[in-house]
Amino acid sequence: MDLRECYAQLGGDYDGVMGRLRSEERVVRFARLFRSDENFQLLTDALAASDWATAFRAAHSLKGVALNLAFTRLAESSSALTEALRAGAPAEDPEQLYRAVERDYRTVLAAVDALTGPTA
After folding, report:
1. Which domains, ranges and CATH numbers included, belong to the chain?
2. 51 CB contacts (<8 Å, ≥6 apart)?
């Protein structure tokens, strides 16, 4: 799989990330680093604990990373969850929004693994 195919699989913006980072090697390096980003796990744990402030910060950070790497679908789903958590306790159960983030996050990881090989 090449980088363009990877971005198609994960619902990303290849041209956008190339315009920002300028080389495929740099994009691949940052995509590998995405695996070590702890915001998804922090979000998962904070939602389970109903810690809305931490969940908001984690969703917002995940959105920022996804935007910078042009992981478009993940950026959109994490943005929707961020907005639901912005005022603190959400008016509705955030489970459906979280599930969309989880699906998109796992899609990104699978595409990155297909591109770079899974990590141990």
Report:
1. 3-116 (1.20.120)
2. 45
Within 10 angstroms of residue 68's Cβ, the number of other Cβ atoms is 14
CA distance 91 to 100: 18
pLDDT tens-digit readout, 60-116: 999 999 999 999 999 999 999 999 999 998 988 899 999 999 999 999 999 999 998
Do the Cβ atoms of 97 and 56 come closer than 8 Å?
Answer: no
Measured CA distances, 59 to 25, 80, 82, 101, 114 (Å): 27, 9, 5, 9, 25
Q: pTM of the predicted model, to two decimals?
A: 0.93
